[in-house]
Amino acid sequence: MAQEITLTGSGAHTRSAEIYNKLLHELLMDPTSLRAVATNLGDIGGSGSATLTTGTVDFDLAMAAANADEVTAADNTAVTVGSVSLTVAHQIISFGMSDLHSIVASPGQLDLQALAAKMAQAYELRFTDLVCAATDTITANVGTSGADMTVDDFYAATATLQQALVGGPWTAVLAPVQVTDLRTSLRSEGGAMQFMPGTAEQLALKGPGYQGNLLGVDIFSSDSITTSGGNRIGAMFGPGCVAYVEASARAAMPGSIAAPSQSPVYAEFVRAGDPGISRVVGHAFCAVGLLENARGVNITTDA
Amino acid sequence: MSAIIGQRVTETATSEQHKLPRNVKARARFWYMVHPHCWSFESGEWLPVPSKLHLDPGCNGVTEGGGTDLAVAQVNRNGWHVVRPSDDRLGDFKWYVQEVPKQGRGRVYLSIWDEASIVGGRVFWDHDDEGWRDFRRHLVTSGICSPMSKQVYQLEMHKQESRVERLEGSAATAPHNQVVAGRLVRERARLDAMVAAMPAHLSDEKPKARRKVKGKRMQEEASP
Predict the structure, then answer these.
(1) Coil, strand or helix at B203
(2) How far is A59 from chain B (nearest CA, A)?
(3) Is A91 within the bounds of a domain?
(4) Same domain, yes or no, for B19 and B127?
(5) Does a structural domain hold residue A74?
(6) Which of A85, A146, A288 sits opposite B59 (nearest CB)?
(7) Do residue A90 and residue B64 have CB atoms under 8 angstroms apart?
(8) Number of domains in chain B
(9) What is the DSSP letter of A198?
(10) Closest among A222, A49, A50 to A124, alpha carbons compared
(11) Are residues B98 and B156 in the same domain?
């Protein structure tokens, strides 16, 4: 037999060399969001300042016995008053696409709309970075430099919070290697202690990055955990340790897409006629910081 | 007529081969800071554990243009002492931050004791532990960081004793568990080493009278 039409022979020009899948495969990334574990101090959009100062006060004080002589007045009780200031800063992300790339795209392929849909997630990722950087300034510390994380470190962190009278629920944010080291250490533990992996419902409630619960502490894994001295600086904290402030655009900025009410993120399409580039730019204004140092503890273990 | 000679194009000038890959996260500039509570026992000695003040706009009071006044004031209020890289007392450790080139947007700032190498497309991070310890030793000897206080020493000892006690309990209830037994041996040895390495200024310290809050002397018979 002869004269067959084949892909590599006479029929080579009747078929495309390759086609592109409409499905886009997303490369590995860590989508952990820690917005839910930080205390929202408010929205200062339209407030007249970029800095929000929150007063801190210790006025939950017990009464004392009155003077026994019945005639000496009780002096005023001192109230500890302080403040924490957070200044919102502009966070931004921008994607650009050339006209040629846009024009030849077929429906369903990567386009500016698909990139615009990633703006909210880009903000969450940035927020997680800021939370992990903020917890670096917690002064209490457990763990052993250069040694893998163990259950003992986890116990020590809970003991620190307990002794500091930190109310629950507690949250631990650990680097992925700290989570795996902790689980390895758990394998050698006896007794009633149990790591409870996150269920589908919990993942939906607590957001991406949630790993499970150990000793009543919710554990999140994040690759945003900072490093120092060859160690990873994880953290465990209670409510009110880390706080944030946002400034939402009350009205659409000129040329931007109107953001939903109270949304900290807004986006806009920008076009440069020469050389023919379209961009989508996402903006957000936020600040993250420690509200009360005593409500957290760092967990420093080997990276 | 003189010839116009072009510049030789090197690999580093034309390719992104010698930069960290795009997927490596940007890391903001930072300053180290020390705190009287932050000490650690490592390789047989007590050393301060510096933390980082990330100079990242929006984080802990750092303002949009990178202003640090507010941030430094707040960390000072919490007891931190910022070690600025420009501090002359740092000596050879002055300018301890390095910038590593990265593909894509953002920059990566590391300490001079961190090193990244790319092997087979994967980034490996190395850390000069000895250099890092030298730096922390220098922080104390240069007077940038105050020596460890007796109270913090006792606090760290207490933490280690608690760790040993918990492991003793685990080992007693599960004597067959070799992993726990091994950890107990290591932690006991560490506790002994921590005692042996007690800083000299603490062991020589004469017992001081407790500081008393001045109060009005009360007469016993005045009370009911």
Answers:
(1) helix
(2) 20
(3) yes
(4) yes
(5) no
(6) A288
(7) yes
(8) 2
(9) P
(10) A222
(11) no
Under a CB-based contact definition with an 8 Å cutoff, are residues B110 and B100 in contact? yes
Q: Is B171 helix (H, G, I), strand (E, B) or coil?
A: helix
Same domain, B54 and B99: yes
Given a contact cutoff of 8 angstroms between Cβ atoms, the answer to whether B19 and B102 are in contact is yes
First to last CA, chain A: 66
Question: Does A75 map to a domain?
Answer: no
Count A/B contacts: CB-CB distance under 8 Å. 139
Residue type, B204: D
Cα separation values, B69 from A82, A298, B55, Å: 17, 24, 11
CATH number for position A40: 3.90.1690
Residues of B in contact with A141 (CB under 8 A): 37-38, 40, 49
Backbone angles phi, psi at B92, to 5 degrees: -65, -15
In sequence order, what E strands does chain A have? 39-43, 51-58, 80-87, 89-98, 141-142, 170-174, 196-197, 210-214, 217-221, 227-228, 231-237, 242-246, 265-272, 277-290, 296-302
Model confidence pTM above 0.80: yes
Same domain, yes or no: B83 and B172: no
| Range of the structural domain that residue B22 is part of | 13-141
User: Token pair of B74, please?
Assistant: 């707040």
Can you give the pLDDT of all 303 residues of chain A as single tens digits?
788 888 888 888 888 878 777 777 777 788 888 999 999 999 998 899 999 999 999 888 899 999 999 999 999 988 888 999 999 999 999 999 999 999 988 887 888 888 888 888 899 999 999 999 999 999 999 999 889 999 999 999 999 999 999 998 999 999 999 999 999 998 887 666 778 887 877 777 787 889 999 999 999 999 999 999 889 999 999 999 999 999 988 766 777 777 776 788 888 889 999 999 999 999 999 999 999 999 999 999 988
For residue B64, give the nearest of A89, A139, A155 by CB distance: A89
Residue ending a domain, choose from B87, B106, B141? B141
Q: Which of B53, B59, B167 sits opposite A152 (nearest CB)?
A: B167
Asked, for residue A146, whether it belongs to a domain, the answer is yes
- Asked whether the beta carbons of residue A136 and residue B52 sit closer than 8 angstroms, the reply is yes
